[in-house]
From TrEMBL:
NCBIfam families: fliS (TIGR00208). Keywords: Bacterial flagellum biogenesis, Cell projection, Chaperone, Cilium, Cytoplasm, Flagellum. It is found in: Cytoplasm, Cytosol. GO terms for biological process: bacterial-type flagellum assembly; bacterial-type flagellum-dependent cell motility. The keyword Magnesium does not apply. This is Flagellar secretion chaperone FliS. InterPro entries: FliS, FliS_sf. The lineage of its organism: Bacteria, Bacillati, Bacillota, Clostridia, Eubacteriales. GO terms for cellular component: cytosol. Belongs to the FliS family.
Length: 143
């Protein structure tokens, strides 16, 4: 995964930052699973700790105020999913097993897909501004 520059990160929306965290989490989960497969338990431990940290950051970034205005308990649902994923990451780290990582990756893939769809819909719902450029020879339309 190509990491964005600090300037690019500063210009991202909170939704884009969340997507970036999802992508980073998926990458770390894959690395942890590979480390377990090769019995590199030190690396697996490091990656799973990073995963746990990312999940905690995702939970800390939840906005419970939007729930009140939108009428959808999305933050509560995401919090429950994040807690479950964090628990699975801990189980994977303690037992050094791949199954909890795979389950977490499956959940994360569904969340990421839904997040990307919501971001695309939000882009589609924005009003489009069309600016017609005139050449030096075109007269403006005075109708």
């Amino acid at each position: 995964m190509l990491l964005p520059t600090e300037q690019e990160i500063m210009q991202m929306t909170s939704q884009e930052l969340t997507l970036l965290l999802y992508q980073g989490l998926l990458e770390k989960l894959q690395e942890a699973a590979q480390a377990i497969d090769t019995k590199n338990y030190d690396l697996a431990n490091q990656r799973l700790q990073q995963c746990h940290d990312i999940i905690r950051r995702l939970g800390a970034g939840l906005n419970y105020e939007t729930e009140k205005t939108a009428g959808i308990p999305l933050a509560d649902r995401l919090e429950a999913l994040y807690q479950y994923m964090a628990q699975q990451v801990l189980v994977a780290n303690i037992e050094k097993k791949r199954a909890p990582i795979k389950e977490t990756m499956t959940l994360l893939a569904m969340i990421t897909d839904a997040w990307e769809q919501a971001m695309a819909k939000r882009q589609d719902d924005r009003p489009q501004i069309h600016v017609r450029k005139l050449s030096a020879y075109d007269a403006p339309d005075d109708r």
